[in-house]
Amino acid sequence: MASETAAPSPSPATGAGPAPAEPTALQELRRLRTGPRGLTDPEAEARLAELGENTLPDTRTPSWSRRFVRGLRDPFTTVLLCLGLVSATVSAWGTACVILSLVGVSCLLRATGEHRADRSTAALRELVPTTATVLRRPDRDRPPEERETPAAELVPGDIVRLAPGDLVPADVRLLRAHGLTVHQAALTGESAPVAKDAAEAPATPAGGGPFDHPRLCFQGSSVVTGSATALVLETGPRTRFARAHRAPARREASAFERSVHGISWVLIRFMLLTPPLVLMTNATLRDRGLETLPFAVAVAVGLTPEMLPVIVTSCLARGARQLARTHGVIVKRLPALHDLGAVDVLCVDKTGTLTEDRPVVRRALDGTGRDAPEVLNRAAAAAWWTLQLADLPAPDVLDEALLDAADGSWEAYEGVAAVPFDPVRRLATAVVRGGLGSHTLLVKGAPEAVLERCALEPAERERLLALAAREAADGLRVIALATADRPARTRPYTPADERGLDFSGFVTFRDALAPTAARALRDLAARGVTVRILTGDHPGTAARACRDLGLDPGEVRTAGAPDDHTARVVARCTPEDKARIVTELRRSGHTVGFFGDGVNDVPALGAADVGIAPRDAVEVARRSADTVLAFKDLGAIDHAVAAGRHSSGNIAAYLRVTLSSNLGNVVAMLAAGLLLPFLPMLPAQVLAQNLCFDAAQLAFARDRPAADALARPTVLRPRDFLRFITGFGLLNAVADLATFAVLALSLDGPDALDDRAVFHSAWFTENLLTQALVMVLLRSGRRAAEGRGPGPVGRAAIVLAAVALLLPFTPLGAALGLTALPVGHYLLLAAVLALYAAALWAVRAFYERRSAALGGHP
């Protein structure tokens, strides 16, 4: 019947808005038109057909061609494209071909690198369970059967069984549960398992979110202990876990995008002004018309760092390939590598990042607070024999920690019986053979529950509770141990025997530290990266982990406290809190990276300049991240930061060199164009000069920056670059104009300036030589005096200088209108270049000292 198979309405327990009153289990069963025996096969099939499979939303990655076209949206690439089209319009085919080729190569490299990263991460999409144990009936008259059914076929109204190790296959409501605890770290970031119970309560616990609800379990969590029978409330895209997979809101521009866009628009303004300025000045002062348009376009191209898209993409792609090959780090979005180099604040969760997802024993102590090894041995014996002898053993991470720490000492005890743990008593009891004719009860559990059953005076009990509370406030988990001797017997032991106990002591646990975390924190601090911990854990637990790692936690604040984003450690963070704190840090001027692996980390991953996730993170976290690590290791992030600074340092060096040199050349050309009766350089010569300089600058993609460039965040600040290129560009223009003055004085006769071939050749040679000097001195600075080899940039500068000196003697030089210079001219050029090199060195030294004093980036 239609009424029997109609799709149920959304559950108020998992819907968007809170229900005014929590429905009972019976009401939920009626609402979903099911019962404790589960659905029939026809009912399940009809619901599956109407509601769809219980799977995560499909994710579609852009195709290679779409990524290629997307590369054209970069503002600087767009300007280059326009300049190429303008060059073609004025029949400057060589310029047009070169520019359009560079645009194509840049888009090709970027699209290929990002497409390769997508393919590398495609195999990581596996989180939700493949099967589930479900109660189904062939028809209404047949008894239910337990079946292993594909999780994709679950529908609301199904009854499922949960056991230790199971992943919760959907959003469910517990009908029955025994000793159930679930791990919700992927959803909440809470490291400790959470107890769940099917018992009805008057109301939902106040002040907690849906994940704190004791009767609800959610897809994406896993069963740690116990067993349960549960009613499926929501499946597929309606689960809370699936809703987190929906496409995140468009993120704000990252640090790299802001920097490149800022620099690009500064250059765009210069380039748009240059051709009209050249045309107007030549038309006004020299009565030249549109015949100077090719020269005007050539000058604009001369100002343009044509290789910027290629250099940027090459540097980033090369760094990304090396990271993937040597450290297993996949950079999904190439600009994210620069953002990693610019990061000065790294926000991380505690669980699984600074600590492993398991506890270890810190110490065992007696009632006076002194170390008591025997307490640890007895607690381990209790854990061992409870696991061995209980009818329904419930393995626990604390039991595993006890057994690891005791290292076999429990073998001295002979087990007799056990009373397993349950979340109501919060105790577990092992019975071992004692002295002649006696048994010894070893009772361990929550301090309050154990001390309540001990034969103690009220004052003594309060003192011991205070001792346990002090240990817990220090970020430690605490269990208590008590013993009791009983006459040997054969009848079963029950919780009623857990009375009149003798208190033995406490065992404290801390989170196991990630093996590489302490060293990685030191390395990141040495690179100027401040690590902030944003965790859902208790403040004391977070502070304890920091202290164990040698990191000063400072004042630990809880999320929502005033100025919580300024604290080193923020505890009790919700997903919204993490995203808000990351956003506030970015607004404060920081470049922020966020490392997370759970659904609760997705908003912060999207809010950060660069999101980082490990390979074993939930799929939605990997999809939201810009960078994926092969292992959950802060050390890999340190390597990624170093690689980002390496690439960014080379990009910054290229920009400093090319922009200052190009600006100087353009200023000199404009000035010479007003003073000379002819064009200071032919368009073909301008193009040849640009090609030579651009080819030499490809070496920046393979250069190794100075060590100090890797010791601090690398940020491309448009204002700093504008000051730098203005100062050094004007210095370059002075050198060019000095060359012009020398040529004017050295050429013989009243018509000296009409000797165009000599003038063009001398200025062509001088320009390339000054550009070679700029490559060496603005790139390497004082490192040449430190005994280092020339490196890729130095070798490229030597080749460029050789081309400048030899090209006028070749047939190609003659075709370009160049001619050999007299020996005297070379001596004069050498003098000008020597003075220019000395001035460049002095200004560079002054700039370095000033930048170091201001904490800037030369």
Descriptive overview:
- There is one protein chain.
- This protein has 4 domains: about 1-60 and about 125-245, Calcium-transporting ATPase, cytoplasmic transduction domain A, CATH 2.70.150; about 65-115 and about 250-340 and about 640-855, Calcium-transporting ATPase, transmembrane domain (Up-down Bundle), CATH 1.20.1110.10; about 340-355 and about 515-635, Rossmann fold; about 355-515, Calcium-transporting ATPase, cytoplasmic domain N (3-Layer(aba) Sandwich).
- The protein is built from 28 helices and 22 strands.
- The protein is elongated, with a radius of gyration of 36 Å.
Core attributes:
858 residues; alpha/beta; Calcium-transporting ATPase, cytoplasmic transduction domain A; Calcium-transporting ATPase, transmembrane domain; Rossmann fold; 4 domains; eight-stranded mixed sheet; 28 helices; 22 strands; disordered N terminus
Major pleated sheet: 8 strands, mixed
* Helix share bin: 40-55%
Shape: elongated
Tally of DSSP helical segments? 28
Give the strand tally.
Answer: 22
Question: Which second-level CATH architecture of the largest domain applies?
Answer: Up-down Bundle
Distance between the termini: 77 Å
The domain count comes to 4
Q: Which structural category do the helix and sheet elements fall into? A: alpha/beta
Low-confidence stretches: 1-7, 9-20, 120-129, 203-207, 749-754, 781-787
The CATH homology group name of the largest domain: Calcium-transporting ATPase, transmembrane domain
> What is the CATH class of the largest domain?
Mainly Alpha
